[in-house]
């Protein structure tokens, strides 16, 4: 197993480098750079802008620029943000956490709702409640998250029930721990719901399918025949086996923790990586873009790896070499 | 996954099974209607996508009347309207009783070309004598929301279909080749796929959008977006096709074709890929929504199709402001259209899977 | 979810306020002890980019630093006069070139160190005039490539020697002064460009201003707290400022910011015209007032590329000579000026709350604003007539007009895609020009790309754009002088291309060295008339400057220069029982 992990990571790293080089070229070869936008300020002279270009070596050949960024990477130096004028790590630092909080909230919401719903639907198979749930799932599955977010924001603006965008209240600094926790939850409610709706629909369907399949297995029939109470049959025998295959899905969901919510962050004004990435791409803040996407990739890779390992653990038929 | 080629009878059985799913049939019909409407948008829409009348900024949907101010019945008509700003500077439209415009089918209006070929100026319906008929209300510059929705459908739906076709062509060829040859070819091609799947999709989308030269006009941007979406989308398909081909290449009919001395390309295209057809059909249906949503997301944050051209995404971008929704809720329509279309594709795709490939319910 | 009903929330706020007030009753000996305490919550659309006032490049940074740092002088937003700040008084020599500033006694940096002449000399000689430090201030304080000489006379006296007379000098002296004791080391190590970035601990950012930085969370908010060492006292003798804290929420969407204001989370907001109908009816229930202080500063215009210069690399003209010929034709520009539907723009974009703009200065600029300029009504028939007389009409019946040489009038109209208001303005203009028979291709561009075209590649035809403005006409020098980099229609000319551009150059050279305000006004009045006649920029519309402020502040005096310009005097009213 260790060898497998090692080999996989070994293959991944060159791929990551090629892709990051590709991204770097993409950012660099397109016309216009960050300092162009400064030029419209009547009080800044062209000489000033020239000085900036020198300062950040923007006039050196592209390969030199890329490799200087790459070598610095190994010293945990991710480059400089031209837009913020501080090291990239500082810009990203706090935002990674914020994105993580939102993704986690949505993950908890998704699993917390979808799993019980799936079980319920499977147990009440083909009854009215099941059909209603399946219909809602289709609707949920097909709702574009951005549109849901827009509608939720609109209703929040009418009802004053939830804060409209942002992550903290103005007086957050004066709150105690519990109040802070609740404050963040209230702010996360809209984006997390919008983010979860579609996944709840999808996961619920999978859970229901798994559960139905398990309930049809021989040993369940045996358990029932033995006269075990239905609750115990469902919750202690069937459930465990029905949930096992979902663990891999969980692994894959972990991989999207840093990049999955980007669009919603922009719409809901959540101070995460998404909005940062958008402005960074638009203002051609190269190193910020590179570092953010690289981080997203690393998490994606780790998440996938984690999922595969879990799968191997759970399914003895799969063996990696 | 079903790796046997479907025989004639299996197709028939699948069709029967599909038609038994009433929801799926309904959704299929709905999709046909939406796509048909998009194809004939110029004729069905009362106005051209750029037809504006600034005196009707954010005019609410026109009320269709059947009785005039004296209570007399007459053919359907609308009143002319004028704008005033109230004490809070809010738009208020007042009916002008003396201006009446009859509504008619097959009315002359903005010129266009039927299917990009035949010049025509006949529209399905509209108001006579320069009356402004807003079935679903107007946008900021007094353009008809209904017309723009139809014109937008043309863009959004075609991006979905063309995008999927391109990435599927690439995916089938790459996946087919990788699976058929195996070994080094397989390794190289699969590493390439992985490379594209390593980067978070939305970030890649943003970065690639930045490459598109800024002086592209709207038509060029449209094709650029299709290319970008296909560029991102082909890899995941290629991997699945590869898996299927890997097992197919050991089968007798492939070996037979090989001994007959057919070229590799012929074998892949003629003998291997057809066996992945049922899977491909399902995957096409289920991935089109992704393309439609990706275009909408791009347009929503201002990086997609640009005004004056319409797409569902850029129409919805107008609804990004809560203030605008509050005073002109009809600008949310594009969102519902996106939703309905995506849902239809999902339902139809699901039903197809049930019909064609009953064992893979849970993938 | 916990959710406090509105009334309960207000009650809680009052409760906390009163306890703060009680605390200050005993702590501060002042004429108006009840005025102390409380928070001001505002919103900003973007993060500051640094806390370094010298290298700052954008308003999001000065949003923070304006509370922390001060200059020798300050501009009173009410009287629009220059007033003493860190300098108590000043003298000027008869030739207007030597200025001596007497600094205020007893001013402390917020870390307790005394403020002296060394800090002023340091700010100018070691920071602004330091070649290693990119700073926009240097451009302002450099005249004809010569810099000011700044010398310390004694601890509280500084002498400035100017190369030539410089009319806006005192206004320029509102330049922030930075502490030598905190920054000298960084400058010596050539690290100043990276100091006081966003990663600096707030306590390290030291200024003399009324507030100091307390915390910053990227993408969320920054908090400023009262500087207890601030020198300024109110007329009643209270040590200012009154407020405890200023909290800035970073809210990217202006729409959300406005809703947060209506929700009571934010205390003040700058409204856009189309939001007025939502906010106005809630004035009573939301307990706020909307102040309309007239047109905004700045400008919004359509500009044509009249560049006849040759690209030194390709030896070809930057602008296609066929197009340049149209754009250089004053009749062509007049016809376009007649096709700007300003009234409808104001209606559609601003719900009627805007002003048509006719020349360079905004009405809010006050003294230097000249209302008697050429005005072009929206009149497409007139525009068509002008074009016809100048030889532009449809010669071959294809629906598009041709110039006298038979070329179809076709060009690209660009604007920056991020600004929805500008995109709408451009779209409206395009629609009308199309109806005149011009083939206009609309090209919304990303801001940086647009600027590249405008500044380096010069490959554009027409652009809808805006510039920031102020009350001092000289600060538009870069735009109006024919050698200026922002002289967009034909930048960086060696010699003025036209007679009127030559005259404008003269006016700016004379204007900056003329110390008599009235004589300056005559010069700049003429400039505004020339601009309106020659139409290098075809102006569109300006927003009303609308500020909504919660009814809880004392000493509030909003002007078009700012709502909280006198933030140190502002206090929270104790309303009702």
Could you please describe the fold and organization of this structure?
The complex is a heterotrimer of chains A (321), B (363) and C (577). By secondary structure, chain A is mainly α. In chain A, 73% of the residues lie in helices and 1% in strands. In chain A, a hairpin with a 4-residue loop joins β1 and β2. The radius of gyration of chain A is 25 Å and the shape is globular. In chain B, α10 packs antiparallel against α13. Chain B starts with 7 loop residues before the first helix and ends in a 7-residue tail after the last helix. Chain C is 30% helix and 20% strand. The two termini of chain C are 31 Å apart. Chains in contact: A-B, A-C, B-C. Chains A and C meet through α2, β2, α4, α7 and α12 of A and α4, β12, α7, α14 and α15 of C.
Give the structure's gist in a few sentences.
The complex is a heterotrimer of chains A (about 325), B (about 375) and C (about 575). Chain A is mainly alpha-helical and about 325 residues long.
Give me some keywords for this one:
A: 321 residues, mainly alpha, two-stranded antiparallel ribbon, 73% helix, C: 577 residues, alpha+beta, five-stranded mixed sheet, 17 helices, 23 strands, 30% helix, 20% strand, disordered N terminus
Please outline the helices and strands.
The complex is a heterotrimer of chains A (321), B (363) and C (577).
Chain A: H1 2-29, H2 46-55, H3 62-73, E1 80-81, E2 86-87, H4 88-123, H5 128-142, H6 145-159, H7 177-215, H8 218-225, H9 230-243, H10 246-255, H11 262-268, H12 273-282, H13 286-314
Antiparallel strand pairs in A: 1-2
Chain B: H1 8-20, H2 22-39, H3 41-44, E1 65-67, E2 73-85, E3 91-114, E4 118-127, H4 145-181, H5 183-198, H6 201-209, H7 218-248, H8 252-259, H9 264-272, H10 277-300, H11 312-317, H12 322-327, H13 333-356
Antiparallel strand pairs in B: 1-2, 2-3, 3-4
Chain C: H1 6-27, E1 39-44, H2 59-68, E2 73-76, E3 81-84, E4 87-92, E5 98-103, H3 117-128, H4 136-140, E6 142-143, E7 146-147, E8 149-154, E9 157-161, H5 169-172, H6 180-188, E10 211-217, E11 221-226, E12 245-250, H7 254-262, E13 268-271, H8 276-279, E14 288-295, E15 299-304, H9 321-328, H10 330-337, H11 342-350, E16 354-356, H12 380-389, E17 410-416, H13 420-435, E18 439-445, H14 447-457, E19 462-467, H15 477-480, H16 499-513, H17 517-534, E20 537-539, E21 541-550, E22 553-554, E23 571-572
Helix pairs in contact in C: 3-6, 10-12, 16-17
């Amino acid at each position: 197993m260790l060898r497998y992990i090692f080999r996989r990571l070994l293959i991944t790293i060159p791929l990551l480098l090629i892709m990051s080089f590709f991204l770097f070229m993409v950012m660099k070869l397109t016309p216009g750079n960050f300092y162009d936008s400064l030029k419209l300020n009547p009080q800044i002279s062209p000489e000033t802008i020239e000085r900036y270009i020198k300062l950040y070596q923007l006039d050196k050949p592209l390969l030199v620029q890329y490799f200087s960024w790459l070598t610095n990477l190994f010293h945990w130096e991710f480059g400089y943000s031209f837009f913020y004028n501080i090291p990239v790590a500082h810009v990203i630092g706090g935002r990674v956490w914020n994105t993580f909080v939102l993704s986690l909230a949505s993950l908890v919401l998704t699993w917390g709702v979808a799993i019980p719903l799936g079980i319920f639907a499977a147990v009440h198979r083909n009854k009215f409640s099941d059909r209603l749930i399946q219909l809602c799932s289709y609707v949920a599955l097909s709702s574009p998250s951005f549109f849901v977010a827009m509608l939720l924001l609109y209703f929040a603006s009418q009802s004053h029930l939830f804060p409209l965008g942002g992550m903290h209240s103005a007086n957050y600094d004066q709150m105690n721990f519990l109040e802070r926790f609740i404050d963040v939850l209230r702010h996360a409610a809209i984006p997390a719901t919008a983010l979860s709706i579609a996944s709840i629909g999808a996961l619920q369907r999978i859970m229901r399918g798994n559960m139905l399949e398990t309930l049809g297995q021989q040993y369940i029939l045996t358990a029932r025949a033995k006269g075990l109470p239905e609750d115990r049959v469902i919750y202690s025998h069937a459930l465990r086996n029905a949930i096992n295959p979902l663990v891999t899905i969980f692994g894959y969901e972990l991989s999207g923790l840093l990049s999955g919510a980007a669009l919603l962050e922009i719409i809901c004004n959540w101070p995460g990586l998404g909005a940062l990435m958008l402005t960074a791409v638009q203002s051609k803040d190269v190193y910020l873009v590179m570092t953010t996407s690289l981080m997203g990739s690393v998490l994606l890779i780790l998440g996938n790896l984690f999922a595969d390992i879990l799968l191997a653990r759970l399914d003895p038929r799969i063996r990696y070499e | 996954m079903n790796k046997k080629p479907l025989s004639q009878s299996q197709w028939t059985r699948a069709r029967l099974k599909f038609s038994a799913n009433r929801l799926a049939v309904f959704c299929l019909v709905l999709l046909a209607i939406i796509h048909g409407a998009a194809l004939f948008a110029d004729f069905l829409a009362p106005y051209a996508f750029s037809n504006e009348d600034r005196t009707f900024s954010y005019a609410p949907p026109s009320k269709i009347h059947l009785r005039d101010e004296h209570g007399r019945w007459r053919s359907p008509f609308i009143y002319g309207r004028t704008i005033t700003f109230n004490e809070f500077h809010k738009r208020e439209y007042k009916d002008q009783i003396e201006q009446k415009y009859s509504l008619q089918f097959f009315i002359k209006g903005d010129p266009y070309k039927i299917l990009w070929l035949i010049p025509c100026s006949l529209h399905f319906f509209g108001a006579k004598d320069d009356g402004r008929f807003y079935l679903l209300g107007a946008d900021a510059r007094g353009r008809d929301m209904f017309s723009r929705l139809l014109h937008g459908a043309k863009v959004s739906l075609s991006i979905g279909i063309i995008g999927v076709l391109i990435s599927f062509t690439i995916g089938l060829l790459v996946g087919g080749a990788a699976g058929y040859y195996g070994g080094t070819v397989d390794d190289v091609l699969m590493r390439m796929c992985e490379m594209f799947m390593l980067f978070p999709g939305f970030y890649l989308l943003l970065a690639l959008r930045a490459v598109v030269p800024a002086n592209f006009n709207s038509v060029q941007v449209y094709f650029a977006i299709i290319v970008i979406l296909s560029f991102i989308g082909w890899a995941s398909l290629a991997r699945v096709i590869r898996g299927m081909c890997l097992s197919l290449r050991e089968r007798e009919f492939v070996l037979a074709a090989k001994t007959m001395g057919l070229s590799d390309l012929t074998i892949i295209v003629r003998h291997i890929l057809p066996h992945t057809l049922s899977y491909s059909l399902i995957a096409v249906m289920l991935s089109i929504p992704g393309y439609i949503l990706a275009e909408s997301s791009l347009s929503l944050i201002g990086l997609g199709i640009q005004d004056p051209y319409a797409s569902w995404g850029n129409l919805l971008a107008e609804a990004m402001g809560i203030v605008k929704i509050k005073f002109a809720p009809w600008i949310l329509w594009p969102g519902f259209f996106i939703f309905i279309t995506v849902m239809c594709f999902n339902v139809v795709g699901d039903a197809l899977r049930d019909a064609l490939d009953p064992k893979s319910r849970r993938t | 979810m916990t959710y406090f009903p509105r009334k309960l929330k207000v009650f809680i706020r009052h409760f906390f306020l009163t306890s703060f007030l009680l605390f200050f009753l005993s702590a501060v000996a002042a004429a108006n002890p009840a005025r102390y305490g409380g928070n001001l919550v505002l919103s900003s659309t973007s993060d500051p980019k640094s806390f370094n006032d010298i290298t700052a490049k954008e308003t999001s940074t000065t949003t923070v630093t304006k509370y922390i740092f001060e200059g020798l002088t300050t501009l009173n937003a009410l009287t629009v006069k220059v007033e003493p700040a860190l300098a108590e008084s000043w003298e000027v020599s008869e030739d207007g070139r030597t200025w001596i500033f007497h600094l205020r006694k007893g001013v402390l940096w917020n870390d307790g160190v005394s403020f002296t002449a060394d800090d002023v000399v340091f700010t100018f000689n070691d920071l602004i005039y330091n070649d290693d430090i990119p700073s926009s201030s240097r451009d302002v304080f450099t005249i004809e490539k010569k810099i000011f000489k700044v010398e310390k006379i004694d601890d509280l006296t500084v002498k400035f020697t100017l190369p030539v007379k410089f009319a806006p000098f005192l206004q320029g002296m509102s330049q922030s002064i930075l502490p030598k004791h905190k920054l000298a080391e960084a400058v010596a190590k050539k690290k100043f460009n990276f100091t006081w970035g966003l990663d600096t601990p707030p306590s390290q950012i030291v200024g003399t201003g009324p507030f100091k930085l307390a915390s910053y969370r990227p993408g969320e908010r920054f908090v400023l707290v009262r500087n207890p060492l601030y020198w300024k006292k109110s007329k009643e003798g209270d040590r200012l400022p009154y407020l405890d804290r200023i909290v800035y929420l970073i809210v990217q969407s202006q729409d959300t910011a406005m809703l947060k204001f209506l929700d009571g989370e934010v205390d003040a907001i700058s409204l856009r015209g189309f939001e007025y109908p939502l906010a106005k009816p809630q004035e009573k229930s939301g307990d706020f007032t909307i102040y309309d202080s007239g047109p905004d500063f700045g400008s919004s215009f359509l500009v044509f590329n009249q560049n006849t210069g040759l690209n030194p690399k390709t030896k070809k003209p930057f602008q296609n000579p066929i197009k340049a010929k149209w754009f250089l034709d004053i009749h062509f520009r007049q016809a376009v000026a007649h096709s700007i539907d300003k009234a409808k723009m104001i209606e559609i974009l601003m719900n009627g709350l805007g002003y048509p703009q006719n020349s360079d200065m905004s009405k809010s600029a006050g003294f230097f604003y000249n209302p008697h300029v050429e005005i072009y009504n929206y009149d497409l028939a007139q525009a068509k007539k002008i074009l016809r007389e100048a030889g532009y009409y449809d010669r071959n019946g294809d629906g598009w007009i041709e110039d006298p040489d038979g070329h179809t009038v076709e060009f690209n109209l660009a604007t920056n895609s991020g600004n929805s208001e500008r995109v709408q303005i451009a779209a409206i203009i395009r629609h009308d020009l199309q109806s005149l028979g011009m083939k206009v291709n609309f090209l919304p561009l990303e801001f940086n790309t647009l600027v590249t075209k405008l500044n380096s590649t010069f490959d554009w035809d027409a652009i809808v754009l805006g510039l920031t403005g102020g009350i001092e006409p000289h600060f538009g020098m870069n735009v109006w002088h024919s050698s200026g980099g922002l002289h967009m229609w034909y930048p960086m000319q060696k010699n003025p291309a036209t007679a009127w551009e030559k005259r404008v150059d003269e006016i700016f050279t004379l204007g900056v060295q003329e110390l008599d305000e009235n004589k300056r006004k005559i010069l700049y009045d003429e400039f505004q008339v020339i601009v309106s006649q020659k139409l290098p920029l075809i102006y569109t519309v300006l927003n009303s400057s609308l500020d909504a402020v919660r009814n809880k502040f004392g000493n509030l005096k909003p002007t078009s220069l700012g709502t909280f310009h006198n933030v140190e005097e502002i206090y929270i009213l104790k309303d009702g029982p």
